[in-house]
Amino acid sequence: MLDRLQELKEEALKKVEAAESVKELKDIRIAYLGKKGPVTEVLKGMGKLTAEERPKVGQMANEVRAAVAVSIEEKEQKLEEAALAEKLRAESIDVTLPGRPTVKGARHPLTSVIETIEDIFIGMGFTVAEGPEVETDYYNFESLNLPKHHPSRDMQDTFFITSDLLLRTQTSPVQTRTMEKHEGKGPVKIICPGKVYRRDEDDATHSHQFMQIEGLLVDEGIRMSDLKGIFEQFVKRYFGEDREIRLRPSYFPFTEPSAELDVSCAICGGSGCRTCKQTGWIEVLGSGMVHPNVLRMGGFDPEKYTGFAFGMGVERFAMLKYGIDDIRHFYTNDTRFLSQFHRV
Amino acid sequence: MLVSYKWLKKYIQIEDLTAEEIAEQLTRSGVEVDIVTPMNKGVKNIVAGKVVACEKHPEADKLNVCQVDIGEEELAQIVCGAANVGKDQYVVVAKVGARLPGGMKIKRAKLRGQVSEGMICSLQELGFEGKLVPKEYAEGIYQFPTAVTPGEDVIPLLNLDDHVLELDLTPNRSDCLSMLGVAYEIGAILGREVTLPEVKEVESTIEAAGTVAVSVEAKDDCPYYGAMIIKDVTISPSPLWLQTTLMAAGIRPINNVVDVTNYVLLEYGQPLHAFDLERFGSKEVLVRRAFEGEKIMTLDGAERTLSAEHLVITNGKEPVALAGVMGGANSEVQQDTTTILLEAAYFSGITVRKASRDLGLRSDASARFEKGVDPNRVKEAGLRAAAMISELAGGTVVSDVTEYDALDRGEKEVTISLAKINDLLGTAIDTVTVKTIFNKLQFAAKEDNDIFHISVPTRRQDIAIEADVIEEVARLYGYDNIPATLSYTATTPGGLTELQAKKRKVRRFLESVGIHEAVNYSLTTAEKESLFEKRSAERIKLALPMSEERSTLRTTLLPHLLDALSYNKNRGILNVALYEIGGVFHTNEAALTTQPSEKTYLSGAFMGLWYEHAWQGEKKPVDFFVVKGIVEGLLEELAIDADVRFDQAEVTGLHPGRTACLKVNGKSVGVIGQLHPNTAKAWSLPETYVFELDFHQLADQDEKVVRYAPIPRFPAMDRDIALVVDENVKAEEVEQVIHELGGDLLKHVALFDLYQGEHLESGKKSLAFSLRYQDPEKTLTDEEVTVVHEKVLVGLEERIGATLRS
């Protein structure tokens, strides 16, 4: 009987060894360990055994059962592992294929420049003021010390709608409008971005419509040195810490003294190149101390208050910052142009 | 203003500085020099020559064979094609080996069998601009007006060793529209004296019969008029030095008399005019306003119709000059002129500017009068010119100046304290430095206890108030020497207004959705506008547009956005989504008298695929619901706390069945829709969708406040239903009915399927909704939900005939 059990054990283990699927193993389990299996069959003959033999055979039978069960379990695990490995192998992908892109619309470079500059000045305590694009002669010219027939009006060729209404040629009218709201009391600290219009033929460097940012600070005791100080802050934050500034005398009807602001050329670092026309400097904006007539017309007493104003061309800033060579790109909305600015 | 460096040296000592160095100094102190141009554009080895013999080329009609003395042992034979070459002329010769501008090298050549050892040159060939070359030589070779030594280097002769500074003058510095003004400016920068030209006493004979009478009717327009008579002049080309000086300054030499008036104009900044007295028509000068519609033929040959705002010089009857702008053709100095009436006058800037602008006629004279000439130099300039004419044209000045004179020549007085200067500039400049600056400027200044009393010379018309004087001090002190400080104003909170902040929010949202921002022109055409004529608004047109394309202010952002789609499509970019946030202009007035209403619109335009994934093969063309989703997202972003509805609508330019009007609290604030196929065709666009919203109205709405709501503690139960309804029943309607019937337990309804097709009766559609029931207080039982759900189903059938889809 013991021999028979030993035989059965070896037979079962061989089959388990040879099994190739979980199903086969299941069959083996039923065949050898089931109630009708040969081990049970052998045990049924136990009655014929002596009391001495019985526990020996019983023990042996249990050993055989256990050995077969363990072997089946081990084999099962092996087969499952192999199946999983096969599944994973089948699921493998080409990780170099491009990912699914997330969408990102581009901010227009002019918007980007305006927002950047707004934020720099907001950080210095300025608010953002806006005004109408169809202006009156008074706000666009007269209140800015440009009476009718003033030769300086020629500096800005104007789109008139009627003799009194026009498309503003500058964002400066927002200066007067804001000063009026302050009713003669400082401080006034604003920057005013917006569209302006001039009678220019559109070409690589001219546009009949463009954007400006105007700045105005009026308070008691404002000095030209303060203008220089704020420009230093602004230029370093916008153009970079290593940039130098210089002021150059100029003329604007609404400021006196007036100054152009030059920034050291980023391309050559000031030694002179094509971009800066060999001067080492790039002109970036016009500025000056607010003309007493402009303060007066805005309702401020020029004996008590002084201030400075500045105006910059947004397209110029964008062109300098991104190396854009033609102003018309800003207005054609070619997506091959726009999409280049989705990171700005 | 073109400033010859060599000419400048007549008035100020600048031998130690190059033209470039002068330019840099001027630019840094406020008179910007655009460019310094050498007169010599690459000319080398060019000499003066005398044509000793000139014969027709035996083989070619148009060529001449000349024997030219070029100061060498042998004559040079030169074949010349110019029609005006002739014997005994003094000409410019490019010898063999010479260089011309552009690097051209002259070689010995054979022309139709004749040896040519060099070239006789025109001025253009030497690099002069054609429009500056005296007319008589413009089509041929140049001839020296007087004898020159053959072989002499022409570079100094023709002033080719000069450099010209091109000034980019701001309108206030009209004083630098003269050589003397520039000399004063350089003098102020360098601290050097200016040498004034010598105005020689003219020999004049008082001859009553020869004088003219001067009367001025328009006294405000012409506070000074001086006339001088110079008789027995001989009109001829000017001497070489005068010709080359004028050409360097950008003025074409004409004849000795006209050239002198131009020379003095450049020297003093005072325009002068020479009339031919015989052609003048009388001996009486009358300055008056023109009659309405009066005509004058100006020197440029154009007939001008004048108005009563224009000032004319007349001979008592008819106009002979448009005052301060241009002379009349009827009294022009010509070859046979013998007696000159020389005008030196002061005309009001406003009057001259008016005429110049009205007639579109700019001249060197008008440019100067417009900005105000120096009242103290008018007469002096006249005397200087008279003396020069007398010297160069051989005439005699008949009398002293006959004049009308009511001119204010007083100097402006400005008083300013040292403290005021330093307060405005933020500097600590001392008294001595300020005094020195006034000295350099040649401003007479008296100082008393740090208060300066300044008399501003009349040449500086731009200086009238304290701030002007402070600028003079600042620019000569040097802007570089002004420190950089930070103002000590009260701290102010900077920031954006709510509207500005919302604008940025909208931009960030649309960027995140994947739409590029466009910026378009505000000016458009009436035609494009009319395709979206959804308002009966009047159009706002420019008085004088530069082109029809940019003549009308936009009332909608859509046309230019469609232009942009079309632009991209034409370049092969077929999937485009753009938005713009910008101003539009509306008025109710047929003729604008007040500022129009300016609104900010937010619009978008879409064509092609909304989503595409190349290798996964996913493609999603844009449709109405893509755009609606974006607009809904936008409303969500703005957290609008109001009743928002999308109503089916018909809008000009849009698809009648695929357009919705967005209503906030019942008020229309925008549209979404597909472009009408006809409109799309007008832009050659495929299926295109747009939206246009009134941004101000959206941004003005109350914002939803964020408040915490308790998280439900008991589970919800979902029931899905598919309803069959008539196809014209709106989904929103069904949803509303479900909500009403569902009561408090129904928390959420969502449409998840729409079906129309073969498995349904025609004229019907199936809408599938998911309903979520929930009680915040307890776990709902199946029975409880069924009671409510049944009520919903029954109600749906009763109210809108909806049946459950089997």
Automatic annotation (TrEMBL), chain A:
Main location: cytoplasm
Entry annotated with the keyword tRNA processing: no
EC number: 6.1.1.20
Cofactor stoichiometry and binding remark: Binds 2 magnesium ions per tetramer.
Domain Aminoacyl-transfer RNA synthetases class-II family profile: 111-320
CDD domains named in the record: PheRS_alpha_core
Top EC class for this record: ligase
GO MF: ATP binding; catalytic activity, acting on a protein; magnesium ion binding; phenylalanine-tRNA ligase activity; transferase activity; tRNA binding
Pfam families reported in the protein's UniProt record: Phe_tRNA-synt_N, tRNA-synt_2d
Cofactor(s) needed for function: Mg(2+)
Subcellular location: Cytoplasm
Keywords assigned by UniProt, alphabetized: Aminoacyl-tRNA synthetase, ATP-binding, Cytoplasm, Ligase, Magnesium, Metal-binding, Nucleotide-binding, Protein biosynthesis
Catalyzed reactions: tRNA(Phe) + L-phenylalanine + ATP = L-phenylalanyl-tRNA(Phe) + AMP + diphosphate + H(+)
Family: Belongs to the class-II aminoacyl-tRNA synthetase family. Phe-tRNA synthetase alpha subunit type 1 subfamily.
Self-association state and partner proteins as the record states: Tetramer of two alpha and two beta subunits.
UniProt cross-references to NCBIfam families, sorted A to Z: pheS
Entry protein name: Phenylalanine--tRNA ligase alpha subunit
Species this protein is from: Evansella caseinilytica
Gene that specifies this protein: pheS
TrEMBL record, chain B:
Keyword Transmembrane in annotation: no
Keywords per UniProt: Aminoacyl-tRNA synthetase, ATP-binding, Cytoplasm, Ligase, Magnesium, Metal-binding, Nucleotide-binding, Protein biosynthesis, RNA-binding, tRNA-binding
One matching Pfam family: B5
Domain of life, source organism: Bacteria
Cofactor mode of binding and number, as noted: Binds 2 magnesium ions per tetramer.
Domain FDX-ACB: 712-805
Main EC class the enzyme belongs to: ligase
Names of the cofactor(s): Mg(2+)
Compartment list: Cytoplasm
Domain B5 intervals: 409-484
Amino-acid positions noted as binding Mg(2+) in the UniProt annotation, renumbered to this chain: D462, D468, E471, E472
GO molecular function: ATP binding; catalytic activity, acting on a protein; magnesium ion binding; phenylalanine-tRNA ligase activity; transferase activity; tRNA binding
HAMAP family hit by this protein: Phe_tRNA_synth_beta1 (MF_00283)
Family statement drawn from the similarity comment of this UniProt entry: Belongs to the phenylalanyl-tRNA synthetase beta subunit family. Type 1 subfamily.
Subunit comment: Tetramer of two alpha and two beta subunits.
Record-given protein name: Phenylalanine--tRNA ligase beta subunit
